[in-house]
Amino acid sequence: MVMRYDVNLSILFTELPLLERPAAARAAGFDAVEFWWPFAVAQPDDREVAEFVGAITAAGVRLVGLNFFAGDLPSGDRGLVSWPGREGEFKASVDLAIGIARETGCRAFNALYGNRIEGVDPAEQDALALRNLAFAADAAAAIDATVLLEPVSAIPAYPLLTAADALAVADRLGRPNVALLADLYHLAVNGDDLDAVVTEHAARIGHVQIADAPGRGEPGSGDLELERYLAQLEANGYQGFVGAEYKPTGPSADSFGWLTREEDQ
After folding, report:
1. Alpha carbons 51 and 98: distance in angstroms, whole number
2. Quick one: which of 56, 122, 127, 131 has the most CB atoms within 10 Å?
3. pLDDT in tens, 12-36
4. What pLDDT was estimated at residue 232?
């Protein structure tokens, strides 16, 4: 089986307005895309949602991954799952994401866990996270979809650093449709054992994302042996998408030479 690739349009093709990016991805040869939460708030107006769905549909691409609302990412927020007082926003974004999925076919949702908050007991945050994740998992199950848990780098207050951290949360939750989002860049930067991740945990990975390290550029711009890790994933039965989620070192449309090389092998 040849790996299936999608492109993350929240980090690639940022030279263009968001609604023009699906068509640009299609022109670059992709038939599948993913996004972080594409709106500024958890509950955008209906027009914004319709325009987003329309841009995907008109481009002829499939939406294969979508983040739930995660707060203000540029300011350092990394999710509402464990953030006391913001349960309503999180649940509203879950409901909206499910609605978008019904129109686009998306069946994978990334629930960023959230940062530790000064003055709040981590145990309280973790208990809240389980309640919010149960809500999301049950909503996703209604459309046969998966909720993803992602270890993230470069945010000291974010508690999920390794695959084991994310899978421990999934184990405590006990929902069969909660899986690991294995972003090989974040895991590598955090010092996780990528060989172990792609062999021992392959069956529990619901989605994969790639960027090279250091730098988070396109594959080939750094030192990660991404081709080897992806081959191991495939050998261990992974059949999902691999999301290109990197910061291109040049124009986005010119950053896919690595993909041509891989397809030629």
Report:
1. 16
2. 56
3. 999 999 999 999 999 999 999 999 9
4. 97
Task: Give the three-class secondary structure for 8.
Answer: strand
The active-site residue out of 51, 103, 150, 263 is: 150
- Indicate the Cα dihedral angle 215, 217, 221, 223, nearest 10°: 50
CA-closest candidate to residue 5, choices 69, 56, 61, 57? 61
pLDDT, position 265: 40
pLDDT tens track for 197-218: 999 999 999 999 999 999 999 9
Q: Is 154 left (phi over 0), alpha (psi -120 to 50) or beta?
A: left
> Looking at 89, 234, 245, 262, which residue is catalytic?
245
CB 188 within 8 A of CB 224: yes
Q: Which residues of 124-151 are buried (b: 16+ CB within 10 A; e: fewer)?
A: ebbebbbebbebbbebbeeeebbbbbbb
pLDDT digits (tens, 9 = 90+) for 89-106: 999 999 999 999 999 999
- Angle 25-26-32 from CA coordinates, rounded to 5°: 80
State yes or no: is 150 an active-site residue. yes
pLDDT tier for residue 223 given thresholds of 50, 70 and 90:
very high
Separation CA 195–CA 2 (nearest Å): 20
